[in-house]
Amino acid sequence: MKNETPLQTPSSSTLGDILQTIRDARHIVLLTHQGPDGDGLGAMFGLYHTLSSPNHILIPATESRPGPAFTCIPQISHLTHNPQLKDADLFITLDAGEPDRIEFYHTSYKSRTINIDHHPSDRFAMLNYLDTSVSSTSEIISAMFFEHKIHVPPQAATALLAGIFFDTGGFQHNTSSTTLHYVAKLLRYGGDLERVTSYLKHSTTPQALNIWGQALEDLSLEQSPALAHTHIPHSVLKSFNLSSKDLQLDKLALLIGTISESSFGLLATEYEDGNLKGSFRTDSFKNVNVEQIAKYLGGGGHRYAAGFRYKGSYTALIADIRKAWHNGKSDTEIGSVAE
Questions:
Q1: What is the pLDDT of residues 81-109, one digit of tens each?
Q2: What is the DSSP letter of 65?
């Protein structure tokens, strides 16, 4: 991590500020974005396992239940889905760029909220630590512990490894020497990378693979932009009676993003009739910023992985992606591709 005050603004805070505020609080509720993923949960349980004590009650809370792959995070069963928010004297929001995407969060909590994120984020909290140069929010939490010489127990080390592993696609993108330095330290503190890898990469069910196969069979390749894309209709989800978490669609999206003939990939899932959830993925060498395309569609994320929600048909979505690409083609923030 380059320094303790990235994205300098009057509302930015240092990791020291944040750590001291946590130490001064007694009842702390940990929150993340809707549909919690490996990074949000990894950062959450990294804090939970490291800082919980009789004098510091940390409550990890989500409205929705994480998918089965995230049982690699030790004691994830300690998640509460009905937190006593009125008892909290501090909220910590993790990996969530916008307050309206945070489960259980209300703007009235601002004066007792810390926001920690690696996405370009609203500075909506009392204290904000934002660093877009790092791999993940879990890397930020790791940095806070190691830079301030806080002992990280093995369960926390495993949780933080899960967060970093998830957001880098298994160390395939957005992975710096600093990221790997923290990974090495987490391993020395007892982090179980084998457990993380087993659950996040090798736990796909036969039913999920069946749906993956159908989606890949329907894969299309656009020429301008050079986009590989497919979608899973709502009728398919209903017929298998599986949620997107059960299907581990983040792994399928990552796979689509690796197709050599394309510069980026899209997986669109129709979670309700006429309502799509889109996931963009790409590789660093392809020189495309999918975050900018997702922003055009009302979403967000980071350079190599981004998402959005879309109301309309899949055909209309592809047309809007073409429009986003051609409107921004001269903008180096989106990038240029070999077409």
A1: 999 998 899 999 999 878 888 999 998 99
A2: P
SS3 267: strand
pTM: 0.81
Q: What is the pLDDT of residues 115-133, one digit of tens each?
A: 999 987 778 999 999 998 9
Domains in the chain with CATH codes: 15-200 (3.90.1640.10), 206-327 (3.10.310.30)
Per-residue HEC secondary structure of 79-145 comes to CECCCCHHHCCEEEEECCCCHHHECCCCHHHHHHEEEEECCCCCCCCCEEEECCCCCCHHHHHHHHH
* CA–CA dist 30, 44 (Å, integer): 6
**Cα distance between the two ends of the chain:** 35
**Residue 323 DSSP one-character state:** H
Residue with tokens 């990221």: 179
Q: Is the peptide bond before 36 cis (omega within 30 degrees of 0)?
A: no
Cα 7 to Cα 226: distance, rounded to the nearest angstrom: 32
Query: Which is it for strands 227-232 and 220-221: parallel, antiparallel or unpaired?
Result: antiparallel
pLDDT score of 217? 95
Q: Which residue has the tokens 């330095």?
A: 181
